[in-house]
## 1
Amino acid sequence: MDLILMAVPVLLKGLVMTLTLTATSVAIGFTLGLGLALMRVSNSAIAERIARYYSIMFRGTPLLVQLFLIYYGLGQFSFVQDSTVLWWVFSEGTRCAVLALALNTAAYTSEILRGGLQSVPVGLVEAASAAGMSRVLRFRRIEFPLAIRQALPAYGNELVLVVKGTSLASTITVLEITGYAKRLMSQTFAILEVFALAGVIYLALNVLLIGLLRLVERRLMRHQQR
Amino acid sequence: MGRPAAAGRTLLPRGSMMEFGLAQLWADGWIYAIARGALVTVAVGICSMVLGLVVGTVCGLIKWQRTLVLSQIVDVYTTVWRGVPELLIIYLLFFGSVEFMARIAAAFGFTNMGGGGYAFAVTVLAIGSISGAYSTEAVRGALAAVPIGHIEAAKALGMPGHRIFRRIIAPQMLRIAFPAINNVWQTTIKDTALVSVVGLQELMRTAFIGAGSTRHPFVFYSVAFVVYLIITLVSQVGFNRVERVLSSDTAKVA
């Protein structure tokens, strides 16, 4: 009981950091992923290839390597240290973690969205063009809404992966749930208990995110209801 | 091998950033350390995957048959192991088992445990159990995709249960599960990098030590990045080839 009273506030402090990391990297990662997905389905061979190689590189290597390459690797260069903007990003663990997570999730998101975009029936796009819609309008009204409906269930899995990925930030001095949990484990030796408490927080967070996504899905699919 | 690097980052003096090149990586013997680390990574990956497939097949069958109690236990296992960060699971198993193993070792009169083998075993247990949780879902999904009519037909012909499994269920299940198993393998090999934080000297740990003792993290993490990419891409080619073989007999019909 004493343990719970001591550990829970600490872990909840970590939850705030976990949420911050998740929200920022998902926001950046989704935008970047959407751009990459558009490059994948574009007519430009160069853009398609760049996006494909990006996806292969970030999905083919561990997130931990990407994180260390950004935090330890890029931080060593003097041109990074000299540039105000770059050093603002690379000098601090939280921002490096957000950058690594965002770049990583962008690669997976681009694959999910690409699948969604490719599932949009060609006839609908042709009809929209025939009706005189501009490319931007066509994307906004026809392609994107249909693609996102297709992609949402798979994107839920990706969100869970991002939440789990934020735990790696603890390896570069950012204290989030896992970082605090590790500290509590070595302080109290109550390893299983701390694991259970931290685990419950993560599971609750995942359930919450999936639930939110279901709500969005329900809203997007409301034309099919009743 | 150098000692583990300090936690802080190295800030190099101006102009020294490109002095350490691939030539020095070769000359100082780091390339061998990296190669050795890569071998350990692949070994950990394969052992964990095998353990994961065994766990996954057993648990997948339990979930598919909806065996009472056991099926609920498997549900808890896959939910927790897939929903909680891998790093937290690794901490649980490493810190938890160190105490446990020390007690057992002490009971048998040993004071220090064989370091390398022990770390390897716990790593395989940790990564294998995570891999197993994902494999369970892959196996269950594939089993559910086998048409019930096929199984009913086999039953009607009077085939015994084990033969139905061997001749009807297993071949179809294997083909359906394979793409998902491929994904599990990719995740598993990437997850092995996480155990570097508890000290097994695989690829990532070697890169970390090299980065610390030479003070050239960019070079070492880039090399690790490339080696991981090679491992995943090469295994991808292998998996694609097997997938083609597995689906070759259906392709002929189509």
## 2
Amino acid sequence: MKHIEPDIARRLAGQLEPEQERRFDAHVAECPDCARLVAETRSLWDALGDASAVRDAQQVSSVWGAVQERTTGREGEWFFGASHWVRSVLAVGTVAAGLVLSVLLPGGGPGPESAGAAELESIWLEESAWTTAAGEGGLETLWLDAGLESEADSEEER
Amino acid sequence: MNRVIEDDALMARTAQGEEAAFRLLVLRWEKDVLAFLIHMLGSREEAEDLTQETLVKVYRQAPRYRPEGKFKSWLFRVAGNLARSRLRRRKILRWVDFDSKSHDQASSDPGPQRVLEANETAGAVREAIAALPERQRQALLLHRFQGLKYHEIAEAMDTTLPGVESLIQRALAGLRSELAGKVELS
């Protein structure tokens, strides 16, 4: 029995190689002791899944605001922490410089970096929608919907 | 159709100061990290606090991050280390403050089993998970709940494959014996 014990969790998680899995299953089919241990561990495995905190975590609102304040938000502290007159001078100066540059430089529009940021923004919105839907309707439904949607997409592409 | 930007690419863009890239990483991983920490610490408030810590650390370490392994393993290594040092600190504080008052408080501490338990079985299972030694608990959580493979867990926990194998095997054996008689397991 000892010899298959290290592989049980991997078998239950579907992480054994096909050949290892075949050997594992063949042994369990012939060995009642191992079959009992696997059955017991499978029940435990399922019970662990039911006790998962993932669902609880889905109900907690995003920590982004707090994290942003402690990371990227801090980059602006030198500005917002400055006195009123310094901020006013800087703000007026920035607007004036922008106006001068818009007159002097031909063309315009967003450069490649801002296009990248816009792309990230839209992906963020997509993933937010996924997360929200997962919280509301359950991941299983979402994956199912996504599967159907991608099948529909490929139908359209054809 | 969904577009995917790999975590490593987002880390590189975060290192360049692109807030949107970092925000996407946070959105992608915060719930997994939070769930892992709830099990590790047995307290949702503390888990939320350490989820923030973990993500702040990710941001600060982005310029030094090298995409040599899997981002997920690295992320859970950061979260796991923070959780373990929090647990150590908790033990020290309990030892230092050990008097009747703090003892009463410790006894009335909600404990992992009361953290949002859905039913009796889930509560018993959570209690049993919380009672596992830290490293066994960490390995099991990464495998069962985060779906990490053994070599990824080894990376996240700075150990070897046989080490992970042994931790998970002992964790499962511990749970089986702890839950025997409390939960039907076959």
## 3
Amino acid sequence: MPAARHPFRIRRAIRGGCCYGILSFVLTAIPAHATGQGSLGGDRLFWVLVWVGVLIVAAFFGYVQQNRMVQRKTAELRRELFERQMTEKELVAADQKLRQSLAEKEALLKEIHHRVKNNLQIVSSLLYLQEDYLSDPKGIEILRESQHRVKSMALIHEQLYGTTDLARIDFGRYIEGLTANLFDAYGIDSSRIRLNVRADDIRLGVDTAVPCGLIVNELVCNTLKHAFTPAAMGTLDVIVRMLSPGRMELVVADNGIGMAESPAENEKPSLGLRLIHTLTAQLDGTVSVDTTNGTRFSIVVSTPEQPKKES
Amino acid sequence: MIYARPNLAVLPGSSGVPELVTLGAGQQERLGSLIKMISTDFDYVIIDTAAGIGASVLWYNQFADHNIFLLSPDPTSMTDAYALIKLLCRDYGIDHFNLVLNFVRGVREGKHTVETINRVTQRFLKLKLAHLGNIPEDTAVRRAVLDQVPFVEQTPGSKAARAIHELAQRVHTLI
């Protein structure tokens, strides 16, 4: 290399033009006599400078490469950001839509239960109004029994739209309401006949609650009509409990005069008893009666599995 | 209508005129019949709409035979494009869209961007978008904009100009 100043200029524009780098440096070849060293010293200096130059160029290209990689990663992250943002937005929108749809359906279902209850009450009122056109006590009694049956069904729908769970009712609470209504309807003084309701925390859907409600309605009506003489004191126990998952027992027991074990030969079984047997069979259940101390009806029915309680 | 070149006429819109953005039903109908009338004299009518999901943008898009979305690989641009695609798909029943990527730094970036947006549309809209091509980032475009001349004429050999030619070929196959 002749003794002179040799300027080097490295120009590198990173693809895309967003980073632009110019690196310049000067290699100066100094003659050996000027340094006062021999030719060996001049050669050494030359190679040192060459290596320094090579290192600088390598560092520069390393920087450029790293810059490219950063840009590539940034672009990847931006794409990922977009994907995540869109996914989140879509999921939130879908969630909102679902909630809105659920709220609408709940409102509709409540409205349906409300209307069913109102219609059943109208039927009950019609039956009540028809009593005025009957003079036969037996006929009036039949109409009243029908009224109680209709009311027992209306009570289920009333409870369904009045709670947050539109699919199931608290059956214990329902039994308390039903028996209280029947005591009122028959004009029973609660100090004369004491009512004990004991119920497990059982939630039943309409399909099971309606027949179970009708069964309890028949048994309680029967007790209130026949178990006690007008002045007699007594107790009426209504027990609802789970025997095992999927098996529920309904017990209606009184300490009254007791009932005949079997009806007379020419006597037709009452509608109430027929209903009890039919509805129990419908729920894949069994009926047992114990008349040793008053009357004790024990009905075991199948119920769908109870939902687990929310913790 | 201005003839910029022998076979290229431009019907300019206007900037800062709100009436053009919010066309009434009657005006839309008139403009629609005007475009139909004009289209008989041309092979292609290209409508360059504004960005976003304004009423006029939606109207032009439902009016078009083919919808081409020009977007950059930035998340904001992708989000805008996705919002419009979603609206057109859900509310107007359009189920075929074409993408052109602008300002891309390499084929790979364009491909990855289209893959990303396609993943989202396939997942939530059950829709696959067609990729028509990329227009690379090119200083020739910036120069042409400053000189106010088309870059395909100013620097026909530039990367962007070549990409436009390739794109034109692909658009031609759409028809």
## 4
Amino acid sequence: MNNKELEQVEIEVLIDSIRRRYGFDFSNYSQASFKRRLQHYLKLKNINRISDLIPAMLHDPATFKTFLFNLSIPVTEMFRDPQAFQVVRQKVVPMLSTYPSIKIWHAGCASGEEVYALAIVLVEEGLYDRCQIYATDFNDQVLKMAEEGIYPTERIKEYTLNYQKAGGKRSLSDYYLSRYEAVIMNSALRKRIVFANHNLMGDASFGEMQLIVCRNVLIYFNQSLKEEVLQVFAESLAPRGYLWLGTKEDVGLPGLRNEFKTIDSRQKIFQKK
Amino acid sequence: MHKWRKFEAVVIGGSSGAIDAIRTLVSHLPGEFPVPVICVLHLHPHSQNESMIQLLSGHGSLKVLEAEHRMQIKAGRMYLAPPNYHLLVEPGELTLSLNVDEKVNMSRPSIDVLFESAADAYGDRLIGIMLSGASHDGAAGLQRIKEQGGITIVQDPETAQAPIMPKAAMVAGRVDFVLPVAEIAELLLLKCPGGKKA
């Protein structure tokens, strides 16, 4: 058995240990991405071999927590793919505005940048006070970061550019306070957001939403988990509710074809049939 | 050491000055080039690949397209990473995969991410090429390709518009070939026989 094959065994034992001990099933993850993050974690913790990680993972829940945190921290951006936000303004907002109250589920919100971006759009479109946003993630630590809404100042330049390209109507600086190395998002933006733990790998559907946002999360899942999650989304949407996925998400899934019609194929916006 | 082996993929990384290099490379490869070519070029996150695809498509008979998530990797094609996503190779199933993980070497897509995942997926059946660029991204990835037994090629820094990247790759470890781009193309045709001439 060569090193590569041995490593594959270690990865499989690790995944099996985590699944049986904590119920998180990473066998449904994109292998290449999982491996990369795993290697990153090993380097960070100065651990030589994947198998060295397994005892601590089994016996110490705190180790698993840090592992989970490091594994599931996709650094999100504000107004990533600015054009997608423009399309949401043009094609989704008009329909949302016909509802007296609007429920939105932001699934896999990570550290929350995108939830705030969405809140800003809703404020500018005059809908925010009618909205209830559920921002969920399976990782409590990132949820806490999302709730705090504090981000490094160095990223703001990029976000501002994105915001302008996304059809922003004011100045992004209207929405945060600068504090030396960090900015803190206005608490008014948080007013209608509830942050909650929800695990797309296994938790059930979530009320009757008008819009579900889940961008660049499914990209990490294999086909079977994707299908399962799409089913959860379909069940969680009100009739004619919208689903907004990441721009490069693959959408050749039967679950998507059967339950949804395409509103914008480029920006991956769908509507429940 | 293998005397002869069937290569399954070519991965290419480049940054500033690499577009011209890739154009030259593509113009020397036949449409039936028998292995897939997978590329990461550093581009601005808001840029689109369409113009690049047009630019490259006119220069050879290889089919140039943007890499999509879960796309089957096929011979006779050149795949370009979309801006602002990492491009990886899924082991086993040999499909392309995208993710939005944090930047590596201040880059997304990162050449290291592609090279390392491709090295894991293809082992010694991989050829890695480092072209012109002004960063260190890709140097570690090229080394991983070498470690897994693949062939590593670096554009001769003397011929590169931006020599930092080829030089960084050479400093990081031993590379198999240092060549001007036209000769890299010839070497590829030699290592990957079977496709008809353009």
